Amino acid sequence: MRNELNDIILQVMRQCRNFFIHSQETGDFAVVNGRITLSETYKSGQYILLQDDINIVTGIYKISGINDIFPNDYLLDDEELNVEFEGNIYGLAIPPDFLILCKEILSVYKNPAMRISPYVSETVVNLHSHSKAVNKDTGAPLTWLELYQARFKPFIRMFPEVSI
Questions:
Q1: CB 70 within 8 Å of CB 76
Q2: Is 119 exposed, middle or buried (0-12, 13-18, 19+ CB in 10 A)?
Q3: N or C: which terminus of the chain has fewer CB atoms within 10 Å of its end residue's CB?
Q4: pLDDT score at 55
Q5: Residue 12, exposed/middle/buried by CB under 10 A (0-12, 13-18, 19+)?
Q6: How far apart (Å, rounded) are the C-alpha atoms in residues 46 and 106?
Q7: How many CB atoms lie within 10 A of CB 23?
Q8: What's the confidence (pLDDT) of residue 150?
């Protein structure tokens, strides 16, 4: 079971083409019993981006303790528990406003009662008349990414920092 907030953070970072990279390590790494040893100093609570050559552990992780990036609520399957990989570990410096936005998106995404209505307007005069919020170009219903697009603007970069 993946950490849903980390997945939302990764999706929004991809959308913004901004991973807020602070530092980078490149080389061969090993996850042993769900723990990874990092050569640089990372702080508990800091987010990192793992990018491996075989996409087993690629993703955003929050460091929960020294050399422990997989918290108890993240269930590793057998192939992720002990794996060696070649790749990159990026130390991230994510702004608090960005994390707040991602947490809001997750709460809306997880709670149907809080979801933004897919309807722009509704008329109740003897008949119901609904107008769905749709993409102007495609006519398809808006996705959560499109609904929040305007709020991504302060974080958008021209070019991606990493290709993930």
A1: yes
A2: exposed
A3: N
A4: 78
A5: buried
A6: 19
A7: 13
A8: 85
pLDDT value of position 17:
92
| Residue in the structure block whose two tokens are 């981006």 | 49
DSSP the chain: ---HHHHHHHHHHHHHT---EEEEEEEEEEEETTEE--SS---TT-EEEEEETTSSS-EEEE--BTTB-S-TTS---HHHHSEEEEEEEEEE---HHHHHHHHHHHHHHH-GGGSPPSEEEEEEESEEEEEE-B-TTT-PBPPHHHHHHHHHGGG--SS-SS--
Ranges in the chain, pLDDT < 70: 1-2, 39-40, 65-81, 111-134
- Could you identify the residue written with the tokens 């974080």? 155
